[in-house]
Design brief:
alpha/beta; Rossmann fold; three-stranded antiparallel beta sheet; 11 strands; 4 domains; 337 residues
Amino acid sequence: MSVLVIGEGALAGRACRQLTSEGHSVTHLGKAGDRELSAALDGGVSAVAVLLHDDTSAIRYVLAVEHLRPGMRIYVALFDRTAAEQLRSVVPDVTIISPADAALPTLLGAVMGPDVVAVGPALVNSHRAERSALTRSDGFLRVGPFSVPDHIRRAGFIGRLQGQFRPHDGNSAILLTGLIGMAAIIVLDTVLLMTFKDKPFLEAALDAVAVLSTVGPAPQSTNAWYQVFAIIAMLAAIIFLAVFTAGMVEHLLSGRYIGLFGRRAMPRSGHVIVVGLGQVGFRLCQELQHLGLAVVGLERSEHCPNLPIARAADIPVFIGDGGMRRTMKKLRVDRSL
């Protein structure tokens, strides 16, 4: 069989070597223009493999091949699943291979344990297990149903719980300090008004919040100790309010890829650190999160196109360089799985 391989990366090179070793005739093109592509297709090609890292260029080549040779068998590597579905509706004879789907089972297996080679979809005849796995035992490889070990899920749950209201950087610490300080002043002032001035809870809380937000006067009192407390509390409230405002502004401008609480809070232990938030890294984060594991992504570039998608999927992402010891220390690599 004669195969035309289009691509310049390592994947295209390995595909050419593998096809040649199996006895197929291979024609390799890098960045081919319309004339080069048309000339290559006129040479009795039986199938075309488009192996590029750019989905846009790959789709363009597929459409060009379909236009020049309708009905030609085409194999293409695409990362984006939405683009893949749209391409299938336009080119019926195309076979789409996702590099992310190909790498995902092996990466999941490495997370689950040293004896787990790969983790994939559940077997057809297995109704209880959520996944199937290729495991290594006594020198043999076995395929069977697989469930995530309870201790891994438990460690992830504890790690996520420990990450709630735990600042991961200076900006988060400023925000949390201001919030806790204002809340402490309100609670203390409310308790004092209820205890020593016999005010109902709602009235005492209203007075405390009104004073803190500077929309109401402080309760009049002849007690010297309360006047001293009011002076200290109002001065402290000014400071805490300024600190909270600065932290909130910085948090809103930072992209909010890690939250202070909720699912986007950065786990502190029992988690998996995924370095790189490309198509493979993002899919791995999604699968780990779906399996109940705690996960945090690490991305160097703030302009990564998957950052907004990860935020919408409640995946915490830390912006930093994975090659720096300081960055990995912040991510608690010593307490990860």
